[in-house]
Amino acid sequence: MHVGVLTGGGDCPGLNAVIRAVTQSLIRDAGARVTGIERGFLGLIERRVQPLDSHAVSGILHQGGTILGAHNAADPFHWPGNERGGDVSADVLAYARELGLDALVVIGGDGTMRIAHRFQQLGLPVVGVPKTIDNDLLHTERSFGFDSAVAVVAEALQRLETTARSHRRVMVLETMGRYAGWIALEGGLAGGADAILLPELPYDLQAIATLCHEREAEAGFTLICIAEGAHPAGGAMTVQAHLAHSPDPVRLGGVGEALRAQLQPLLASEVRSTQLGHVQRGGQPTAFDRVLSTRFGCHAAEMVARREFGRMVVLRGDACTSVPLSEVAGGSRRVPPDHPLLRAAASLGISLGRPCGAAPSSATP
Amino acid sequence: MHVGVLTGGGDCPGLNAVIRAVTQSLIRDAGARVTGIERGFLGLIERRVQPLDSHAVSGILHQGGTILGAHNAADPFHWPGNERGGDVSADVLAYARELGLDALVVIGGDGTMRIAHRFQQLGLPVVGVPKTIDNDLLHTERSFGFDSAVAVVAEALQRLETTARSHRRVMVLETMGRYAGWIALEGGLAGGADAILLPELPYDLQAIATLCHEREAEAGFTLICIAEGAHPAGGAMTVQAHLAHSPDPVRLGGVGEALRAQLQPLLASEVRSTQLGHVQRGGQPTAFDRVLSTRFGCHAAEMVARREFGRMVVLRGDACTSVPLSEVAGGSRRVPPDHPLLRAAASLGISLGRPCGAAPSSATP
Amino acid sequence: MHVGVLTGGGDCPGLNAVIRAVTQSLIRDAGARVTGIERGFLGLIERRVQPLDSHAVSGILHQGGTILGAHNAADPFHWPGNERGGDVSADVLAYARELGLDALVVIGGDGTMRIAHRFQQLGLPVVGVPKTIDNDLLHTERSFGFDSAVAVVAEALQRLETTARSHRRVMVLETMGRYAGWIALEGGLAGGADAILLPELPYDLQAIATLCHEREAEAGFTLICIAEGAHPAGGAMTVQAHLAHSPDPVRLGGVGEALRAQLQPLLASEVRSTQLGHVQRGGQPTAFDRVLSTRFGCHAAEMVARREFGRMVVLRGDACTSVPLSEVAGGSRRVPPDHPLLRAAASLGISLGRPCGAAPSSATP
Amino acid sequence: MHVGVLTGGGDCPGLNAVIRAVTQSLIRDAGARVTGIERGFLGLIERRVQPLDSHAVSGILHQGGTILGAHNAADPFHWPGNERGGDVSADVLAYARELGLDALVVIGGDGTMRIAHRFQQLGLPVVGVPKTIDNDLLHTERSFGFDSAVAVVAEALQRLETTARSHRRVMVLETMGRYAGWIALEGGLAGGADAILLPELPYDLQAIATLCHEREAEAGFTLICIAEGAHPAGGAMTVQAHLAHSPDPVRLGGVGEALRAQLQPLLASEVRSTQLGHVQRGGQPTAFDRVLSTRFGCHAAEMVARREFGRMVVLRGDACTSVPLSEVAGGSRRVPPDHPLLRAAASLGISLGRPCGAAPSSATP
């Protein structure tokens, strides 16, 4: 049996741990030969692969990134600069046959799974492993990388707290999370944020200013954790207006900086913002993520051995199982307004936004 | 409403995060007054308490240990040096009435919950919060502190790997886990151990020596992670025999050191052992444990507000719920021989022991 | 003897360790009474102090920030909104007499030492302790906080490397250092940067682009560490031009983002930038900084006991000694063009800028 | 020019950073060819080498251990099992000639430098780089690895403090340091130890018990940091007597465990001991150690290029320079009784032993 392994989309702590587990399990339990595809689907398009054996995956458990390389946007069904309207899937399938691949283990997110599903339908047997640092894939309760990102956010907040407390400042930390606020929510809770602003719950600038005022009088400082996709109630207009004259609004400051600029005139304290950026997705996975990645990898290898194709590994409760690839694509798991962690945050007095159309909650004074 | 909070048994990262969440939630959502009992049930015996308000629990989210103090062995039903055969529970109840406590939140393990249950039966309303660094309490999938301990073990293994690899040594790391091997199992997986030895799966010295031999020829080094309660197949006799002339066998070396002494004569490589000890249970909780502790604390406060007494918070799937205190005591969650993590470990080629009475598994060559 | 302690200027890891060491040493060895002044010189203006004893400084060794609070800009000789042209120094001296202060230990940087020196001249005995996260104070080889900032930068670079390597990107990390590039230099060396850009050595955009090109072909990625005060040769004009339409150039992106925007059109690889911000100065001091802070604090206490006033502690070689306050102010220690670390960087092939007026060095291909 | 590189003795964080800096500098600045000798002098005896180029040393800056492998006891002048009384130095010189080595860079401690010196005398040009995790080599103020070990000790003490404080215990931490107490001294200061016991200052058990008693009444707990070579005043007899019936006294418990056993009967609090072991020398070097290692490596390469042979790199003040190999061997830098850090520790109230023959100091009540 000859199995290909591929990591699609952006990098994420734990990818190497999955590659190691898949490779060692396939070699050991299924007697398989394993080949790594370089840089996601790009490797199948440009025909770049490398053999994976015990030696190649030795010592990579702790390493961030992916030894196979990553590419954010290589889609064989839409590959620019190709005469056939960008569809090079037939070439990819031909290459897979040339390699003699009996199956492909595809580690990736929503977009990668959509591509994987199409190859499955075209006859290339596929097993998917969910990868989303934002923890927003449907069907799986947790995915690897998320715990590592949360740990980075929590540590940054803890560092910012000491300087906020000493200088009696308002500190704004912007985290990843364009559509789903899980990282800001768990990172903010773990880091002791006083306000947590998510894409799912538009915030009220005045409520945040009130919180900062109240805290100026007592604790003396305020920590705000804001996801990059968060926006004020009434639309993202205010942020965009503020940044309208900027050539590249997201890069030149981001929503954290925009919130800082809006808050500062309303407050006596100094307001400062920090944007964590790529530091959140680089580096070593936490121990938790190493165990989860290893589990996912071993489960994917078992699925290959059982020829359980066209499905993606998921975690449910404390057990690994799988769902059809067709069910994975086209949706994402956002923070529901009644999630227990939101309830917990509110009962701790953490300021949150409120669902669109909702009346002001008691948590935002 | 006046609520007491108490941390029983040994300390554990995350205790302060629970205390903070319980206190802030009770004050904010239930308008309660909160009193901290010092050093577990000892504070109720010796009448030492302290008021808990927002200020008292500010900034403790990250702190290891417990601001209330801990005591391993204070049981009001068996309190030595008392004329009534050691039962001072009536005094404790009288003191609780004097304080005007309407409820008691008890954070602790198996033994603490047994005591809590008896007080509930005697009329003191109790809500329990599970605390077990070993992750071995029945009914809850995870408890706080465990992730932190696993992280310490994984980091120690990672450190030991560099020296093992450079010197081509066999390194033995002894972890906590007298009856349940969860810490050694997850810590060993996350830290890249080549053999993981648990109390649940007696090990075969010769199989471990064979593994080390094989690795001497290839990778050149071997990492062994052994729980303090692990023992060789055929009984713990060999270890005890080895240490028989030691006045205090567990302290003077432990099972890791005993394994080292047994392995050394069989191998050409040097064998070294390290015992992590209390470093595993001290220090800051991981971000994961801070979130879980906060959730447990908020859920316990909700239970108090709903007068849902005589029950303990548990985590099932991704949801907090509760079970009767009567069901908690008198059992522990050990690693079952068919656990998916054991299967994953075996398919990675990690050497494990085998269940009592089982034939040698393929994982132990 | 009654001694005041004050932390001036911005916060810095290790301030609390100094406060603890000064306080405990003064109490123990000089039998002194110690009073903490709140928020730098603001506390002397607004008459806010707190007693410092063994209990008050217990457990603060590891804490970031300062328990006394900080204020960046409180100068009693220039205090806005005062009828006497802003000079409230006489009030401060009167308050010091009221308190009965025999001496003042002032922990701070260049600006703080200038103020301290004036009070010394006005008859208030002062001992200075150098505080500069940028490590740019004259006369002292090292100051506390710097090692902690370097550690944060090195860890961020290490994280960014995994994602740069996986995605074959150019990653730009902007660090603190407006006038002196020590943090970027040591952080960049420790973090494995391929180019290190300092305020002292204007950079050549084309040389950096060439480096990135060369690395695209080999390693596949490039790590650039740039101090916030770095600028291209030929003047900072290009950066400012790029950001001219931005209302707040430094905040909305900074020089790292400007460099990214300039590099991107020249390269095939994606270029990304990250600005570490306040994360660099918050949080726990490293072990090194705790030892250095403790040493500085104990030495300052000895100087008070010996009535060695009007001087600031400095580290020379491996010994603490002192210099007159008059010599400290009005200068800063910048990275000299012939510094051994620059020579080491060049011989590793790290791209550096070159001194104003210098011909292109061999290190910038 | 063809240069060999060799790491002798035990491993130490920073070795790989030195190897990387030496290799890259020699290739870049001297146009040299570089060959790595495997496992210290063993590689010259057993003729095992590997080529070192830019690719081979890429990405190893952060790695603990040594990519060349280490061997504690391979001395070509005393090599057991050889007909000529163990002297295989002539074979080694012949092999060096066969390889065409023009120079050898030897990274190691006291023992390794002694061997290096003899080869220099026999005509093989040598440059030495000091390596001592204990920081006890003569002539150099700091060596790499030491800062990393101190950081591990400080973190362990910080973890132990939380559990000591919660349970009101006495915690004993045993560190490396058989003859010189630098690790225990700086680690103990950085970790907040209440007593620091060094080989250089025999301790008085009764004084330590008194300290614990005093702290039982106040703080409630005591942290003791003891170097593995520390011993009670009046000779190490008491420890050895205690452990006399143990087959391997150092391994089965060590001096920390012995101190625990001696203290426990004198105290009401529980006493617990932990022995850090190899965790102290494994793992990633700190940022400080990476910079120092890089500097040492680049300086050694410069010395080779200048043909400055027979000398070892040293750090003096903030500058790298060198001393003759003949001056290095046969001595070690121990903590002098009047060292400023000891004075600082005493003025903080930290309990220390006292120099042999000295009267009890005021620091040991």
TrEMBL record, chains A, B, C, D:
<keyword id="KW-0808">Transferase</keyword>
<feature type="binding site">
    <location>
        <begin position="109"/>
        <end position="112"/>
    </location>
    <ligand>
        <name>ATP</name>
    </ligand>
</feature>
<feature type="binding site">
    <location>
        <position position="110"/>
    </location>
    <ligand>
        <name>Mg(2+)</name>
    </ligand>
</feature>
<keyword id="KW-0418">Kinase</keyword>
<dbReference type="GO" id="GO:0048029">
    <property type="term" value="F:monosaccharide binding"/>
</dbReference>
<feature type="site" description="Important for substrate specificity; cannot use PPi as phosphoryl donor">
    <location>
        <position position="111"/>
    </location>
</feature>
<feature type="binding site" description="in other chain">
    <location>
        <position position="228"/>
    </location>
    <ligand>
        <name>substrate</name>
    </ligand>
</feature>
<dbReference type="GO" id="GO:0006002">
    <property type="term" value="P:fructose 6-phosphate metabolic process"/>
</dbReference>
<comment type="function">
    <text>Catalyzes the phosphorylation of D-fructose 6-phosphate to fructose 1,6-bisphosphate by ATP, the first committing step of glycolysis.</text>
</comment>
<dbReference type="GO" id="GO:0003872">
    <property type="term" value="F:6-phosphofructokinase activity"/>
</dbReference>
<dbReference type="GO" id="GO:0030388">
    <property type="term" value="P:fructose 1,6-bisphosphate metabolic process"/>
</dbReference>
<feature type="binding site">
    <location>
        <position position="169"/>
    </location>
    <ligand>
        <name>substrate</name>
    </ligand>
</feature>
<dbReference type="InterPro" id="IPR012003">
    <property type="entry name" value="ATP_PFK_prok-type"/>
</dbReference>
<dbReference type="GO" id="GO:0016208">
    <property type="term" value="F:AMP binding"/>
</dbReference>
<keyword id="KW-0547">Nucleotide-binding</keyword>
<keyword id="KW-0460">Magnesium</keyword>
<dbReference type="InterPro" id="IPR035966">
    <property type="entry name" value="PKF_sf"/>
</dbReference>
<feature type="active site" description="Proton acceptor">
    <location>
        <position position="134"/>
    </location>
</feature>
<feature type="binding site" description="in other chain">
    <location>
        <begin position="278"/>
        <end position="281"/>
    </location>
    <ligand>
        <name>substrate</name>
    </ligand>
</feature>
<keyword id="KW-0479">Metal-binding</keyword>
<dbReference type="InterPro" id="IPR012829">
    <property type="entry name" value="Phosphofructokinase_III"/>
</dbReference>
<keyword id="KW-0324">Glycolysis</keyword>
<protein>
    <recommendedName>
        <fullName>ATP-dependent 6-phosphofructokinase</fullName>
        <ecNumber>2.7.1.11</ecNumber>
    </recommendedName>
</protein>
<feature type="binding site">
    <location>
        <position position="272"/>
    </location>
    <ligand>
        <name>substrate</name>
    </ligand>
</feature>
<feature type="domain" description="Phosphofructokinase">
    <location>
        <begin position="3"/>
        <end position="304"/>
    </location>
</feature>
<dbReference type="GO" id="GO:0070095">
    <property type="term" value="F:fructose-6-phosphate binding"/>
</dbReference>
<feature type="binding site" description="in other chain">
    <location>
        <begin position="132"/>
        <end position="134"/>
    </location>
    <ligand>
        <name>substrate</name>
    </ligand>
</feature>
<feature type="binding site" description="in other chain">
    <location>
        <begin position="176"/>
        <end position="178"/>
    </location>
    <ligand>
        <name>substrate</name>
    </ligand>
</feature>
<dbReference type="GO" id="GO:0047334">
    <property type="term" value="F:diphosphate-fructose-6-phosphate 1-phosphotransferase activity"/>
</dbReference>
<keyword id="KW-0963">Cytoplasm</keyword>
<dbReference type="GO" id="GO:0061621">
    <property type="term" value="P:canonical glycolysis"/>
</dbReference>
<keyword id="KW-0067">ATP-binding</keyword>
<dbReference type="GO" id="GO:0042802">
    <property type="term" value="F:identical protein binding"/>
</dbReference>
<dbReference type="GO" id="GO:0046872">
    <property type="term" value="F:metal ion binding"/>
</dbReference>
<dbReference type="InterPro" id="IPR015912">
    <property type="entry name" value="Phosphofructokinase_CS"/>
</dbReference>
<comment type="subunit">
    <text>Homodimer or homotetramer.</text>
</comment>
<dbReference type="GO" id="GO:0005524">
    <property type="term" value="F:ATP binding"/>
</dbReference>
<dbReference type="InterPro" id="IPR000023">
    <property type="entry name" value="Phosphofructokinase_dom"/>
</dbReference>
<comment type="similarity">
    <text>Belongs to the phosphofructokinase type A (PFKA) family. Mixed-substrate PFK group III subfamily.</text>
</comment>
<feature type="binding site">
    <location>
        <position position="10"/>
    </location>
    <ligand>
        <name>ATP</name>
    </ligand>
</feature>
<dbReference type="GO" id="GO:0005945">
    <property type="term" value="C:6-phosphofructokinase complex"/>
</dbReference>
<dbReference type="Pfam" id="PF00365">
    <property type="entry name" value="PFK"/>
</dbReference>
